[in-house]
Request: fold
Amino acid sequence: MRRTFRFVLALAVLLSFVAVSNVMSDRAEKTVFAQAEPTGKLAEVIARGSLNCGVSGGLPGFSYLNPNDNSWSGLDVDYCRALTAAIFGEVTDTNLVLVPLTAAERFPALQAGQVDVLMRNTTWTLSRDTDLKGDFAPTTFYDSQGLMVRADAGVTSINDLNGASICVQTGTTTELNVTEAFNALAFDFELIPFEASSDTITAFEAGQCDVLTSDKSKLAGLRYGTADPSLYVILNDTLSKEPLGPMYNEGDAQWANVVNWVVYATFQAEEYGISS
Reply:
Protein backbone atom coordinates (compact mmCIF):
# COMPACT_ATOMS: atom_id res chain seq x y z
CA MET A 1 0.00 0.00 0.00
CA ARG A 2 2.81 2.42 0.85
CA ARG A 3 4.52 1.61 -2.48
CA THR A 4 1.25 2.41 -4.28
CA PHE A 5 0.92 5.71 -2.44
CA ARG A 6 4.45 6.70 -3.44
CA PHE A 7 3.59 5.86 -7.03
CA VAL A 8 0.54 8.13 -6.96
CA LEU A 9 2.63 10.95 -5.51
CA ALA A 10 5.31 10.47 -8.15
CA LEU A 11 2.65 10.43 -10.87
CA ALA A 12 1.40 13.80 -9.65
CA VAL A 13 4.84 15.32 -9.82
CA LEU A 14 5.29 13.86 -13.31
CA LEU A 15 2.46 16.15 -14.36
CA SER A 16 4.46 19.05 -12.97
CA PHE A 17 7.82 18.29 -14.64
CA VAL A 18 9.08 15.54 -12.34
CA ALA A 19 9.28 11.87 -13.35
CA VAL A 20 10.27 8.74 -11.50
CA SER A 21 13.36 7.09 -12.98
CA ASN A 22 16.23 4.80 -12.08
CA VAL A 23 14.20 3.04 -9.38
CA MET A 24 16.37 0.39 -7.75
CA SER A 25 15.34 -2.49 -5.52
CA ASP A 26 17.35 -1.03 -2.68
CA ARG A 27 15.28 1.78 -1.06
CA ALA A 28 18.45 3.77 -0.42
CA GLU A 29 19.07 3.98 -4.16
CA LYS A 30 15.58 5.24 -5.10
CA THR A 31 15.76 8.70 -6.63
CA VAL A 32 13.25 10.94 -8.30
CA PHE A 33 14.78 13.07 -11.05
CA ALA A 34 13.36 16.14 -12.70
CA GLN A 35 12.15 15.52 -16.21
CA ALA A 36 12.94 19.13 -17.01
CA GLU A 37 16.09 20.59 -15.54
CA PRO A 38 15.38 21.45 -11.88
CA THR A 39 15.49 25.18 -11.27
CA GLY A 40 14.71 27.56 -8.45
CA LYS A 41 13.38 26.09 -5.25
CA LEU A 42 13.19 22.52 -6.56
CA ALA A 43 16.87 22.58 -7.51
CA GLU A 44 17.73 24.09 -4.13
CA VAL A 45 15.84 21.39 -2.22
CA ILE A 46 17.37 18.57 -4.29
CA ALA A 47 20.89 19.97 -3.84
CA ARG A 48 20.35 20.35 -0.09
CA GLY A 49 19.01 16.82 0.16
CA SER A 50 16.12 17.78 2.38
CA LEU A 51 12.83 19.68 2.46
CA ASN A 52 12.39 22.37 5.12
CA CYS A 53 8.67 22.32 5.84
CA GLY A 54 7.11 24.97 8.10
CA VAL A 55 4.49 23.63 10.52
CA SER A 56 2.74 24.66 13.73
CA GLY A 57 4.04 21.93 15.99
CA GLY A 58 1.43 22.36 18.68
CA LEU A 59 -1.88 21.72 16.97
CA PRO A 60 -3.40 18.22 17.24
CA GLY A 61 -4.90 17.10 13.97
CA PHE A 62 -2.64 19.31 11.85
CA SER A 63 0.91 19.21 13.19
CA TYR A 64 1.61 17.91 16.65
CA LEU A 65 4.85 16.75 18.24
CA ASN A 66 4.09 14.08 20.82
CA PRO A 67 6.27 14.83 23.86
CA ASN A 68 6.18 11.19 24.95
CA ASP A 69 7.87 9.68 21.91
CA ASN A 70 8.86 12.73 19.78
CA SER A 71 6.67 11.51 16.92
CA TRP A 72 4.92 13.91 14.53
CA SER A 73 1.31 13.53 13.42
CA GLY A 74 -1.40 15.49 11.65
CA LEU A 75 -2.70 16.53 8.24
CA ASP A 76 -0.06 19.22 7.62
CA VAL A 77 2.74 16.85 8.62
CA ASP A 78 1.38 14.24 6.21
CA TYR A 79 1.48 16.79 3.39
CA CYS A 80 5.10 17.57 4.27
CA ARG A 81 5.80 13.84 3.99
CA ALA A 82 3.91 13.56 0.71
CA LEU A 83 5.91 16.40 -0.85
CA THR A 84 9.16 14.90 0.41
CA ALA A 85 8.26 11.48 -1.03
CA ALA A 86 7.41 13.05 -4.38
CA ILE A 87 10.79 14.80 -4.59
CA PHE A 88 13.11 12.13 -3.16
CA GLY A 89 11.14 8.90 -3.66
CA GLU A 90 10.83 8.22 0.06
CA VAL A 91 10.79 9.90 3.47
CA THR A 92 13.77 9.37 5.75
CA ASP A 93 15.02 10.78 9.02
CA THR A 94 17.23 13.22 7.11
CA ASN A 95 15.37 14.37 3.99
CA LEU A 96 12.44 16.01 5.81
CA VAL A 97 13.01 18.78 8.34
CA LEU A 98 9.84 19.93 10.13
CA VAL A 99 10.26 23.53 11.32
CA PRO A 100 7.82 24.65 14.05
CA LEU A 101 6.74 28.28 13.57
CA THR A 102 4.36 30.56 15.40
CA ALA A 103 1.71 32.38 13.39
CA ALA A 104 3.79 35.56 13.54
CA GLU A 105 6.98 33.78 12.48
CA ARG A 106 5.64 31.83 9.50
CA PHE A 107 5.53 34.47 6.76
CA PRO A 108 8.95 36.05 7.49
CA ALA A 109 10.44 32.54 7.61
CA LEU A 110 8.97 31.69 4.20
CA GLN A 111 10.02 34.99 2.64
CA ALA A 112 13.56 34.64 4.00
CA GLY A 113 13.90 31.09 2.67
CA GLN A 114 14.18 29.49 6.10
CA VAL A 115 11.45 27.10 4.98
CA ASP A 116 10.64 25.94 1.46
CA VAL A 117 6.89 25.72 1.98
CA LEU A 118 4.36 26.38 4.72
CA MET A 119 2.12 23.46 5.69
CA ARG A 120 0.83 25.34 8.68
CA ASN A 121 -3.00 25.62 8.73
CA THR A 122 -2.69 28.94 6.87
CA THR A 123 -5.77 30.74 5.53
CA TRP A 124 -5.75 31.76 1.87
CA THR A 125 -6.65 35.46 1.81
CA LEU A 126 -6.42 38.20 -0.82
CA SER A 127 -3.94 40.24 1.20
CA ARG A 128 -1.65 37.27 1.80
CA ASP A 129 -1.80 36.32 -1.85
CA THR A 130 -0.81 39.84 -2.93
CA ASP A 131 0.92 41.80 -0.17
CA LEU A 132 3.09 38.91 1.06
CA LYS A 133 4.13 37.89 -2.47
CA GLY A 134 3.04 34.34 -1.78
CA ASP A 135 0.96 31.78 -3.64
CA PHE A 136 -1.30 29.06 -2.31
CA ALA A 137 -1.72 25.45 -3.32
CA PRO A 138 -5.23 23.96 -3.51
CA THR A 139 -7.15 24.13 -0.25
CA THR A 140 -6.56 21.05 1.89
CA PHE A 141 -8.99 21.87 4.72
CA TYR A 142 -11.98 24.20 4.53
CA ASP A 143 -12.47 25.62 7.99
CA SER A 144 -14.32 28.44 9.74
CA GLN A 145 -13.64 30.59 12.76
CA GLY A 146 -15.52 29.91 15.97
CA LEU A 147 -15.72 30.63 19.67
CA MET A 148 -15.07 28.36 22.66
CA VAL A 149 -16.47 29.08 26.13
CA ARG A 150 -16.82 27.27 29.44
CA ALA A 151 -19.69 24.84 29.56
CA ASP A 152 -20.96 26.28 32.85
CA ALA A 153 -20.93 29.90 31.63
CA GLY A 154 -24.52 29.79 30.42
CA VAL A 155 -23.49 31.04 26.97
CA THR A 156 -25.41 29.65 23.98
CA SER A 157 -24.28 32.02 21.21
CA ILE A 158 -22.22 35.09 20.42
CA ASN A 159 -25.23 37.20 21.43
CA ASP A 160 -24.49 36.35 25.07
CA LEU A 161 -20.92 37.69 24.94
CA ASN A 162 -21.29 41.45 25.34
CA GLY A 163 -18.44 42.64 27.57
CA ALA A 164 -16.41 39.44 27.11
CA SER A 165 -12.65 39.13 27.23
CA ILE A 166 -11.28 37.11 24.31
CA CYS A 167 -8.01 35.17 24.06
CA VAL A 168 -6.62 35.32 20.52
CA GLN A 169 -3.38 34.42 18.76
CA THR A 170 -1.51 37.28 17.13
CA GLY A 171 -0.49 37.19 13.48
CA THR A 172 -3.70 35.42 12.42
CA THR A 173 -6.89 36.32 10.60
CA THR A 174 -8.80 35.62 13.80
CA GLU A 175 -7.90 38.99 15.34
CA LEU A 176 -9.53 40.98 12.56
CA ASN A 177 -12.49 38.64 12.18
CA VAL A 178 -13.47 38.61 15.84
CA THR A 179 -13.05 42.38 16.06
CA GLU A 180 -15.36 42.88 13.06
CA ALA A 181 -17.93 40.44 14.44
CA PHE A 182 -18.14 42.06 17.87
CA ASN A 183 -18.11 45.59 16.45
CA ALA A 184 -20.99 44.66 14.14
CA LEU A 185 -23.00 43.73 17.24
CA ALA A 186 -21.93 46.96 18.98
CA PHE A 187 -20.54 44.86 21.84
CA ASP A 188 -17.94 45.88 24.36
CA PHE A 189 -15.04 43.41 24.39
CA GLU A 190 -11.36 43.05 25.25
CA LEU A 191 -8.83 41.20 23.12
CA ILE A 192 -6.07 39.44 25.06
CA PRO A 193 -3.36 38.56 22.51
CA PHE A 194 -0.77 35.78 22.70
CA GLU A 195 1.93 34.87 20.20
CA ALA A 196 1.78 31.11 20.75
CA SER A 197 -1.33 28.99 20.35
CA SER A 198 -0.41 27.00 23.45
CA ASP A 199 -0.46 30.20 25.50
CA THR A 200 -4.03 31.02 24.40
CA ILE A 201 -5.43 27.73 25.69
CA THR A 202 -3.37 27.94 28.89
CA ALA A 203 -4.73 31.42 29.59
CA PHE A 204 -8.26 30.34 28.74
CA GLU A 205 -8.10 27.34 31.08
CA ALA A 206 -6.70 29.59 33.82
CA GLY A 207 -9.69 31.93 33.50
CA GLN A 208 -7.77 34.89 32.09
CA CYS A 209 -10.42 35.29 29.37
CA ASP A 210 -14.06 34.38 28.85
CA VAL A 211 -13.70 33.23 25.25
CA LEU A 212 -11.07 31.56 23.09
CA THR A 213 -11.40 32.20 19.35
CA SER A 214 -9.68 30.44 16.47
CA ASP A 215 -10.46 28.14 13.56
CA LYS A 216 -13.03 25.58 14.69
CA SER A 217 -10.75 22.67 13.86
CA LYS A 218 -8.04 24.24 15.98
CA LEU A 219 -10.47 24.84 18.84
CA ALA A 220 -11.47 21.18 18.67
CA GLY A 221 -7.82 20.13 18.90
CA LEU A 222 -7.09 22.49 21.78
CA ARG A 223 -10.24 21.36 23.61
CA TYR A 224 -9.24 17.73 23.14
CA GLY A 225 -5.86 18.46 24.71
CA THR A 226 -7.31 19.84 27.95
CA ALA A 227 -7.50 17.76 31.13
CA ASP A 228 -11.31 17.61 30.88
CA PRO A 229 -12.76 18.55 27.46
CA SER A 230 -16.31 18.37 28.83
CA LEU A 231 -15.67 21.64 30.68
CA TYR A 232 -15.64 23.57 27.38
CA VAL A 233 -17.99 23.94 24.42
CA ILE A 234 -17.54 25.32 20.92
CA LEU A 235 -20.45 27.54 19.94
CA ASN A 236 -22.31 27.09 16.66
CA ASP A 237 -21.57 30.67 15.57
CA THR A 238 -19.35 31.01 12.48
CA LEU A 239 -17.31 34.22 12.21
CA SER A 240 -15.55 33.58 8.89
CA LYS A 241 -14.61 31.16 6.15
CA GLU A 242 -11.08 29.77 6.43
CA PRO A 243 -9.69 27.89 3.38
CA LEU A 244 -6.45 26.38 4.68
CA GLY A 245 -3.63 25.09 2.52
CA PRO A 246 0.07 25.08 1.64
CA MET A 247 1.76 28.40 0.88
CA TYR A 248 4.99 29.09 -1.02
CA ASN A 249 6.76 32.14 -2.44
CA GLU A 250 5.48 33.41 -5.79
CA GLY A 251 7.49 33.57 -9.01
CA ASP A 252 8.60 29.92 -9.23
CA ALA A 253 6.27 28.06 -11.59
CA GLN A 254 8.12 24.76 -11.36
CA TRP A 255 7.99 24.66 -7.57
CA ALA A 256 4.33 25.70 -7.63
CA ASN A 257 3.53 22.81 -9.96
CA VAL A 258 5.34 20.32 -7.75
CA VAL A 259 3.49 21.42 -4.59
CA ASN A 260 0.11 21.79 -6.30
CA TRP A 261 0.17 18.43 -8.02
CA VAL A 262 1.20 16.63 -4.86
CA VAL A 263 -1.97 18.01 -3.29
CA TYR A 264 -4.03 16.96 -6.30
CA ALA A 265 -2.50 13.49 -6.08
CA THR A 266 -3.76 13.05 -2.53
CA PHE A 267 -7.26 13.94 -3.74
CA GLN A 268 -6.99 11.25 -6.40
CA ALA A 269 -5.50 8.80 -3.91
CA GLU A 270 -8.55 9.22 -1.69
CA GLU A 271 -10.81 8.39 -4.63
CA TYR A 272 -8.75 5.22 -5.16
CA GLY A 273 -9.12 4.33 -1.48
CA ILE A 274 -5.41 4.74 -0.73
CA SER A 275 -4.97 5.88 2.86
CA SER A 276 -1.39 5.00 3.78
Q: What stands out?
A: The first helix runs from residue 2 to 14. DSSP finds nine helices and 15 strands in the chain. Residues 1-34 have pLDDT under 50 and may be disordered.
